[in-house]
Each structure stands twice: as structure tokens, then as C-alpha cells.
Amino acid sequence: MENPIYCNDDGAEPRRRGRVTNTNVGNPSGAQTISGPDILQHFEKRVERNGKEWMLCSYCFKRYVSTKQTSHLRRHMNTCASNRNRGGGGEDLPISGDEQIGGNHTADQLALIDRQLTDLDLIRLMITRGIRSLVSRKSELLKVYREEKEKFCNYLEKLPVRFSLAIDEEAIIDDAYIWITVSYIDVINNHWSLKNKMLGFRKIDPGSDYVETVKGVPSEWRIDRKLFSVIDDNNKDKLGDIQSWDNVQDSLPPGGHLIYAGSLNHMLSEWTSIVQGQADTLVEKIGSCVTCVNGPSVNASFKYAVQELGMEDDGSMPKKRTNNKIIMLDAALKFRPAFDRLKDINKDFDVNLILTDPEYNEAKKISDVLKCCKLENSKGRFLTPNIYIQIICEIYKKLPLVLANPVDLDSVTKIRDSFWEKYGVVLAIAAFLDPRFDRDTLGQWFEEIFDRDAVDAHLEQFFVNLFQFYKAYGGSGDINSTGSEYGEYMTDRDLIRTPNLDILIWWNVKAERFPTFARMAQDIFTIPFYTTLTHFGSELEQEINSAMGATEIDFDILEAYICLKSWLKN
User: Fold this and answer.
1) Boundaries of each hAT-like transposase RNase-H fold domain copy (predicted)?
2) d(CA 29, CA 80)
3) pLDDT tens, 468-527?
4) Residue 453 three-state SS
5) 469, CA 20 to 30 Å: which among 115, 157, 365, 541?
6) Bridge partners of residue 187, in order along the sequence
7) What is the dihedral sign for C-alpha 107, 109, 113, 114?
8) What is the Cα–Cα distance from 485 to 467, expressed in whole angstroms?
């Protein structure tokens, strides 16, 4: 049998698609018979940790011993109730997600599908596949939650690393909730691996103590004495209360201060808001053009122009005005040739709605800056904060190109200065822990941030701060020593010019040579300056919103389900 699917912790590999034909003629059961030789497309091979192999039906969960023969699998497919209930001649069956496993089954019905699964195994399987009908099995769900949480707690407790928390607040229905995630660097098979896990999903009741609510999460996970940083955009006024947590002070270099910071998202969103204001007039004109192009007297001509010019109509032309300024600007830029052609072939098209050449140039600059602020071309790349100074400087350099108003320019500078004042030292250290960036590179970035005359003084102060950080981690030698680890890292660390360097792999290799700096990197690279829930995607957020709409789901079930979904899937 080809392509076995091994049972990992998530238990949910992508499934394949199979084709079935309705063969009700001569088949009184009405079952669908699989056509073609590839019966295995409709089963998932699972290998247990003890080596025993099973074939799992993709439609009803029935489990069969895996052998070289497939006749028993074919017989099952000809009588499979779930397969028969689908009906439809020659349909491609979807074999994934809620439709496939949740479908028309309730939790109790699924429990009868295969009695070889224990109740708790079934709960785990249902969660990984997105089954929400668990209300009637609250006790089993909470038992699984407690078991998995204790396993995870024990694992985190034994890790010889520090942890960074990220807190994201969201209003759902009429209540406020916070997500709390943890980031840490684990060493798996002698390789550094950045992990991001959900710890809790908590409701903030009116009048409740926010700090105590947040503080309770790392405490119950038994990592409160190993915290390094907390990222929280929503409650910066709680800085003093959180930084003074008594139970973390004995573990924190440098100087025993917990890093409590806002995320890069917040600064970029403030910049985005200012730039979007600059685009209002342009987007209003583009919106009128979009409305005209989609009108009954112009739309056919527009499609003809697109086809005549050999342009790809990929749906990027909005059907109506949208508040998404990037979509509107990019539509105007992409279909510029079609608009120019349209004015020649359709008299109903208002030529005054076409942007002028200077307006097109402005649209291009604004679109580029907005995409940079969203890090639109960088998804999945910026897992660690070593390149955030570079991001900030590159965006800041582009802002004067689109902001002519001195008030706007002053605003973006104040936003940048505020962010840098609080977190600049840590970001600069993170950058210097990247072997692609040396003193000269930092100097170039500092020229974008500070007055040119002040760059040298800021560089000198940075290296003083870096050395203090190094000493707080137990580093030896003095700042001018050439024979110490510090001196060797300053002068002989093998600069690399590889653009797509995996910084965790590099430090995994260099940890023995630079042990103190490696410990610094292992802490600093966990700080999720850019993201909180981005690691989990919008799917989990939609899941919560959907579940919150179900009035029969109480909060303890909701938190257990959301956390288990994250743990078992990741």
C-alpha cells in the first residue's frame, strides 16, 4: 500500500479525494460503489505507536486491519451507510473538515461508529476534525482537557528555557475576552524550534482585576517563574503592575525586569491609519470608476477590453466599492490599460473617472507603503524579531514619499520614537544577534532613526547596553577584551550575506562557540513583537465567533474546546 499516513499528535493529515458513481440499478441497498481500482483513496492508513496498522474509512470512521488484500475494504464501501447517504452520480466527494466527519452525525452517533476507540480517544478525534456537538459530553471533554493540559504543563515545566506571553483582547458578542499564547524555543533532536501555543481563552468580566486574570494563567501553567516578556497592545497602562510581579523577579535578566511591550502591529496600524487618510481622495475617485465599470451599460465593454488586451480577469476588479484601500488602489493600477481602452469603445464610460498620471504614481506609492505596513509580502518569514529594525527603517524611509503634510510626517515620527524609546534596545540586540548585520549595518539603520550627528553616540550607547545584557547572562571579560566570548563575537563571528538565513539553525550550530550569546538569543527570539494570534490564523478566530453564537455552549466547554483544538492540531 502506498503513502501511509502516520498518526502524529495532530492526527489530521490532509485527505485525498475519490470519485464515486451511483449504482442504484441492481443494487437495492442504494449504496455507492467505488469505480476504478484505487479503493485506497477512500481510506486513511493509520499506524499506531505500537506499530499496528489500520485502515480508517473516510466516511464513517469504521476501522479495518491493514492487509495486502483490499476485498474487505471494497465490500465495506459497497455497504457503507455514510457513503450511501451522500448519493449523487459521479460526484467528487469532499473528504475533509466538518462536512466529512461532522456532517449529519451527532456526538452520540459518532461514539457508536467504532467501539474500538475509547471515549476519550473519540473526543480527541472529534476535536481535531472540528466537531462542535460536544455539549452532551461535557464531562469527557473537560477530562480530556485536564489530561492534555497536565501533559503540556509537565512538558513546559521541564524545559530549561524562558517563555514569552502574548495577550490579545477581542470583543465577542457583548463581552470582552483575552487570548493568551506562549512562545518559546524548544530544542528537538538537537535543533532549535520556535513554538507558539495557546494557553488560555479568558473572559474579562466588568470590574474584574485584569492584571490578576493575566497573572493567573502563567501561574496555573507553572511557568510564572520563567517568564521573559509579555506582549500586550490593549492595556499598556498596566505596565507597572505587570512588571512588578513578585513571582517572576528571581529569574529575569537583565536587572530582573520583565519585558512588557506593545507589538509592532500597533505601531504599523497607526502608520497605516495616517497613510490611508492620504488615500481617501484617490480611493473615492476609484470607487466611482468601479461603480461605473460594473454598470449595465459599461460592464460588457470593460470585459471586452480586458480580453482584447490579453489581461487576466482573476476577480481582482471589485464588483462594488470596498473599504479595503489596497484592493481599490491595486484594481486601478492593474486595469489601467483597460480603462484607457474603454474610453475609446464605450461613450457611456465617464473618462473623468480615470486617474491622471500623477494620481496613478501616487496610488502606486501608497499601495506599496500600505502593503509594507501589513507585511503583506512577508507572511511566514518573520518568526523572530532580529529583522524588525530593518522593517521599521524600510517603511519609515518610504513614508515621506506619500505624506506631504508636515503634520502627518511629524505624527509618524512621534509614533516611531515612542516605540523605539521603549523597545529599541531589545530590537537592536535582536538584530545584532543576526550574523548578517554588523556595526555598519546598525549605523545605516540608526541614520534613518536619529539625526545624523547623533548616530555615533547612539551606537556607542547601544554597545554599552549590549555588554550589560551580556554580563547579566553571566558573560565574562570586559567590553574591550579580545580574548573573551564577547570580544570574539564582536570581531570574529563570520558575517553571512545569505538573505534567507534561518537564524535558529545558525544559532543551533554556534551555541557551543558563543554560549552566552546563544542564551540571549534563545530568550529574545521568543518575543512575538509582530504577532499574537497570527500563528493560529483566522480559522480559530472564526471558530470562536461561531461557537459563541451557540447559546448552549457554556464558557468552560468553549475554552476547553478552543485550547484542545490548538494543542491537538499543532
Assistant:
1) 384-470
2) 10
3) 889 888 888 777 777 789 988 988 777 787 778 889 999 999 999 999 999 999 999 998
4) helix
5) 157
6) 192
7) positive
8) 11
